[in-house]
Amino acid sequence: METSITPHIICVGACYIDTILDVPHFPAEDDKLRATNLSKRRGGNGGNTLEVLAQLRNISKSIPNGPTRPDLNHLLPAKLSMMAVLPNPKLTASKMIKTSLQGVNLDQCVYRYDQDEAASSYIIRSKESGSRTIVNHNALPDMTVEEFIKAAQGFDSNDTKGNDGNYEWWHFEGRIPEVTAKCMRYIAKTRSEAMISVEVENPGRKGLKQLAEVAHVVFYSKSWAWAQGYNNPTNFLQKLDDQSRPLQFCTWGAEGAAALAFSRQEPDKKLLIKSQWSLPPSSKVVDTIGAGDTFMAGILFAYAANPTNINDSIHTRVALEFALELAGRKVIQEGFSGLGEAVRDSVKPLRS
Description:
Elements: E1 7-12, E2 16-23, E3 37-43, H1 45-61, E4 79-83, E5 85-87, H2 92-100, E6 110-112, E7 120-126, E8 132-137, H3 145-153, E9 167-172, H4 177-190, E10 195-200, H5 208-212, E11 217-220, H6 222-227, H7 233-238, E12 247-251, E13 257-262, E14 270-275, H8 291-304, H9 313-331, H10 339-342, H11 344-347
Parallel strand pairs: 1-4, 1-9, 2-7, 5-6, 9-10, 10-11, 11-12
Antiparallel strand pairs: 2-3, 7-8, 12-13, 13-14
């Protein structure tokens, strides 16, 4: 039997309250339009990813282990945590965020007791075009490097890989690059066995490229690759010359995603895979909000239990296909509820 492993995934980013307005078509400037529906839910990249991860963990626990691998219960994210700046914990918005993240530890979040509004997103979703226009408002002072270090030290040091085989996976949103870079370097220096992943999405945000240099796993967006002059994910990843990153992804919406992996054993050898998931017959796109966050949840779930699989070509393909199916099933439903159950059969190959 293999040494017991208890992974701990920590997402560092922002939690939002999303207000979604469904409209027949996007309104013209200075126009008046009646919305067909209004809904509210907790948003934010890291929060969305953790909500899906919690479902996958629960589903995976309910799947019996096969006779060849009776020890697979330890290959689960044993703990999920969020590090974000939140307003006064007594506010309804703060309670809503906490309720939406069942099974996720929020103890190391930074609370602004003098702030009475959560970060908010107002999303106008057009039925005519399928577009979603997002307006953000966030008056919460961002987390400082000092606050991050204090919060990180609040986690049990045993969560970092040591004699007991436990370890952490830190996933960062690409927010405020100059601060995030220092936080990532702190983790790399003080928790050398921890895995680090980062999102590189907004091409207008300076400094994101430097974040990729610190991470083990990088998630690039279509808009980022497009801004670099590439019209497909494989060409973009192929041109990346930094071989120090073991695994890099580039998502491309309905056209799927690509993965680029470098082998530690054979530094000159790289594996480039592209895949996509076809929607079930008669299904249609309903809600694309959080699809990218869902994809990242699939990848984190597939690798966090055993990051050595990052250099395994078979597992890379299985992980990519799983994450694409998970994201695909997300866009044909409203919100995230029930996603874990929807991919139950696809979780099994990850545990074999």
